[in-house]
Amino acid sequence: MKKDILTILDLTKTDIDDLLNRAIELKNLQKQGILFRPFIGKTLGLIFDKPSTRTRVSFEAAMIQLGGTPLFISAKDTQIARDEPVRDTARVLSRYIDCLAIRTYSQSLLEEFALFSSIPIINALTDLYHPCQVLSDIMTIVEKKGRYDKLKIAWIGDGNNVAHSWINAAAVLGLDLVLACPKDYYPDEEILKRALERGRGKIHLTSDPVEAASGANVLYTDVWASMGQENEHKERKLVFAPYKLRGKLLQYASEDVIVMHCLPAHREEEISEEVLEGPKSVVWDQSENKLHMTKAILEALIGGKSVVL
User: Fold this and answer.
1) CATH number, domain at 54?
2) Strand, coil or helix: 102
3) Using N-to-C axis directions, what is the helix angle for 131-145 and 13-31, rounded to 10°?
4) What's the N-to-C CA distance of the chain in angstroms?
């Protein structure tokens, strides 16, 4: 039976633990120069409505390194752009490829693809969620801290799609998560409500970045205006100015705090140059780990004969 990853809530704690362990194993194989090619003859489709650097390249590189073939499909070049029903495209592509990753605006479009596809569908980002990003972020935390539990994770900034996926991760894994956002930019109430109903973890909202940062083991930020919100950039810069991740804020965190940003970063807006390039920053490891976590996700969803060369 096929499995989709549309949000982190599609996964159990065991699923995530397995993905984390496997991603670290696959990373170690690569570092040792060991070729692992289980996907010879397999094809991954990538339908992207939104620009991408890390997500697109990590998916393409992951598929190639696993021995398969990625097929990039710009949404504007498909018949969907000419009003072909999503259900028709989904059923046709299911006859051609083995898995489909979609980066788009609408979560409901992704859900419709999943409903009518007989192949696994992966959320490569929507306006509501970015599950693969947060899974690779948790991998980075495990690498740096040895665990993800018994840590205070502080989100500083906009209650956006990445924040929503962190909320879902907290609900599944039982994380201690504090989100500091301006009150008019809190995460979606329904997403938060569903997470809290699971009764796992500790999820707290505040408008005070110092409260969130105090004693934190992980400080995480993201751009203040996501894709599609460019016309709000000027206004958001004023509202979010107190939420800039700078050296002064790090002083409230744990001595062993790590700083994360999913990139691209706007230096001296949501994060200072000093912090981004400083010794607490793990953003480049975090970015690399998208490749290894993507491999683990693809392996889990597509399967294939294990071939180590």
Assistant:
1) 3.40.50.1370
2) strand
3) 70
4) 29
Within 8 A by CB and 6+ apart from 131, the residues are 5, 6, 7, 8, 10, 123, 165, 168
Shared domain for 18 and 29, answered yes or no, is yes
For residues 158 and 237, give the distance between their C-alpha atoms in angstroms, rounded to a whole number.
11
CA gap 217, 89 in Å, rounded? 45
Kindly report, residue by residue over 170-212, the tens digit of the pLDDT.
Answer: 999 999 999 999 999 999 999 999 999 998 889 999 999 999 9
pTM more than 0.90: yes
188 exposed, middle or buried (CB, 10 Å; 0-12, 13-18, 19+)?
A: middle
Angstrom distance (rounded) from CA 46 to CA 43: 10
**Residues 44, 70: contact at Cβ < 8 Å?**
yes
The sign of the CA dihedral 139, 218, 156, 260 is negative
Kindly state whether residue 308 falls inside one of the protein's structural domains. no
Q: Which tens digit of pLDDT belongs to each residue from 246-278?
A: 999 999 999 999 999 999 999 999 999 999 999
261, 275: one domain: yes
The boundaries of the domain holding residue 70 are 8-129+289-302
> Residue 45: which of 11, 77, 81, 7 has the closest Cα?
77
